[in-house]
Design brief:
It is a single chain. With 249 residues, the protein is α/β, with parallel strands linked by helices. It has a single domain, classed as TIM Barrel (Alpha-Beta Barrel). 30% of the residues lie in helices and 21% in strands. The chain has eight helices and 14 strands. α1 runs parallel beside α3. The longest helix is centred in the N-terminal third of the chain and has 13 residues. It is globular and about 45 Å long.
């Protein structure tokens, strides 16, 4: 038995989607960046993907089920997928949440706690704006939340991020700050910022007691997959439904 994890970031209606340009982020941390076009999916495609999973009776996994699969040797339900959303932008609440709730799906989101805004902001399709902790709490009947760092989701180059360059003590303190947030319920689950990591990062998470950690490498996960190097499949705006069906398995 194996499972597929899907990775989403932002959702836009086709009329608001501009695949030729990256989207500036708006977060509480003093950090500027732009979200690349492949990290967007159109609402129309997202709805078709979720309808496909529902009509074909896929099971949407919880972190608890994935933990038990690796730590206790339990079996997964047939046709299992894990739905994940990174960074917690407005479209998660605006589009993903009502759709997932409609189908009674479970999902997970990786939270950069230092990015969460303190005040709710109007939706702006021209920007990728982070939600507030209160907005995340309002979606907790569908979503569970895990560690995506507090302030280490920052780039230091095309192949490096803050977490790949920082010292152990800095990393541990940042992980603790994120894990201390009341919104982060899955405190032993992590996603590597930008999918970037070093072997030492993996070792540090293991020593810290993390049980699951997710990369951005595509593929399926089985018993032989290191649970601190779990694979996730990006769902870009140009993915055809047939390709999504193939990846789902």
């Amino acid at each position: 038995m194996s499972f597929t994890a899907f990775m989403y970031h932002e959702i836009r209606e086709s009329r608001d989607h501009h695949p030729e340009q990256a989207s500036p982020i708006e977060v509480r941390q003093d950090y500027e960046d732009r979200l690349p076009p492949p990290l967007f999916v159109t609402l129309e495609n997202f709805l078709a993907q979720m309808e496909y999973l529902y009509e074909n009776r896929f099971h949407t996994l919880t972190f608890g089920e994935v933990r038990d699969y690796y730590c206790r040797g339990t079996e997964l339900p047939e046709k299992s997928v894990l739905l994940t959303f990174d960074d917690c932008y407005q479209s998660v609440a605006r589009y993903a949440y009502p759709t997932l709730k409609k189908y009674r799906f479970h999902a997970a989101a990786f939270v950069v706690t230092g990015w969460l805004n303190t005040q709710k902001k109007p939706f702006d399709p021209e920007k990728s704006i982070c939600l507030t902790e209160e907005e995340l709490e309002q979606m907790s009947d569908v979503f569970e939340y895990a560690n995506h760092t507090d302030r280490f989701h920052t780039r230091t180059g095309t192949t490096l991020s803050a977490i790949t360059e920082a010292g152990d003590q800095e990393i541990l303190e940042d992980l603790d700050r994120c894990g201390a947030s009341p919104i982060v319920s899955a405190k032993d689950v992590f996603a590597y910022p930008f999918g970037l990591y070093s072997g030492h990062n993996v070792d540090l998470l293991r020593e810290k007691g993390f049980l699951l950690a997710f990369t951005s490498e595509g593929g399926r996960n089985d018993r032989n997959t290191d649970p601190l190097l779990l694979k996730r499949n990006v769902v870009p705006y140009f993915m055809e439904l047939e390709d999504f069906r193939t990846i789902a398995g």
